[in-house]
Amino acid sequence: MTSPTDPILVFDIGSSGLKAALFAADGTMLDSDEVAYPPGSHPHRQSPEGWWEAAVEAVGHLPPLRVSAIVLSGTMENLIAVDGDGNALGEALLYSDPCGAAYVEAYRDRIDPRIAGNAPEPLMTAFKLAWLREHEPEHYAAAARFLPGSKDFVAYRLTGKYVTDPTCAATTGLMDLAARDWSDDLLTLFEIERARLPVILPAATVIGTLSEEAAELLHLDPGIPVINGCGDGGATTVGSGADRTDDISLYLGTTGWVARIVPPAQSAAPRPFYRLPHPFTDDIIEIAPILSAGAAADWARTAVGSDIPKGEALAEAADRQPGNALFLPYLHGERSPFIDLDVRAAFLNVSGTDGPGELYYAALEGVAFAISANIAAMGELGSGSVSLVGGGALSAVWPQIIADVLRAPITRPASPVNATSFGAFRIALRALGHDDAETSFSVVATPRPDRYERLDRQRQLFDAGTAFARTLGR
After folding, report:
1. Is 9 strand, coil or helix?
2. pLDDT of 392-446, one tens digit each?
3. What three-state secondary structure class fits 275?
4. What angle do CA 301, 287, 36 make, to 5 degrees?
């Protein structure tokens, strides 16, 4: 038997490796280990068996343990075909696999985005299914189930249950966003039988218990509750503390995104943002991607010959009296609030007195202006909180710059780089009826009104510079 005071074990099945993390009831991460997957036959393919083997190995690297529950998170928009015994039929088609692109036009005018919640796009699982039916008909015919989430395959190995969650199912193009269930109309359109898809259950659902076979491999007690969890986009949002309408979650990894919580009624109208069901409420998560977030900071540090500690010192010095240098962070084009993959980055308004610190500071500020532009496109700041996660949240300077640009306080979880695992942990707390770990969030930056006049000028230059850069092309 396990005790409610025993740690909760999180499996986060990421894009390149699986992380196993142990959390105490107060939200403290006690230990973790990450295991990389073996390479697939193609950059957009992976072996689902590799995910399970990574789970077994990662737990084996942790100290001997007893856990009160297991909860899952992982990549979405995949296609994992399994046979009647739950064995993978070949490699998984990952979220990044563009194989479905050739099928979008044939379906575009036949899909009501008010049902699916999102306009048709090539990476949706539905279009991967169309590709599989044509190019690997033997796997398509032999499949007993098609799973969209990497966590869904691991959940089957843990419990013998075929289950997914609404956040993950929303990325398939087959779910009714308002009903949070498979759409009969979309299933008919794509000729997919409901029985070949997993059941959609809320994130905070105990889907079963750890089987004898899985427990033996993991060196855990059988019978441990296994909680559904959700796709990584939803888990990261929850892990940042964005739980209520108008809350905003900012992610600063190599790429970045702005995630805003909006009322469910907003899902009925077309919007230029990707939409996911919130794991905790009936609300919707609207996501605007930023192609160069941490990548812009990394590039700028390299350009001025600095590493992270030196870059932080340069930025702190520049923050005492910021100059007028401006950076457009479009190293790889941009997807939101406009789609232009040809626009490129630029420094503007650089003076002869500007040095490495001013240029690096401008790069951080440029990403903050890109974040602000996306929030404005979503409808301006409301009364909700603004939280920051990802590697960029570890900076001592960047959260303050963002707070100044947005004119809003910035909160951050205790471990912003582990926000996805922490979000899954919070889902487990809810499923088990435990108190939440809200004390794990704290305000790390408050806006400085004396900076507003300068930032208004910089924002006008940023908008004008962006418009001009988009006329240049490449």
Report:
1. strand
2. 999 999 999 999 999 999 999 999 999 999 999 999 999 999 988 767 799 999 9
3. strand
4. 60
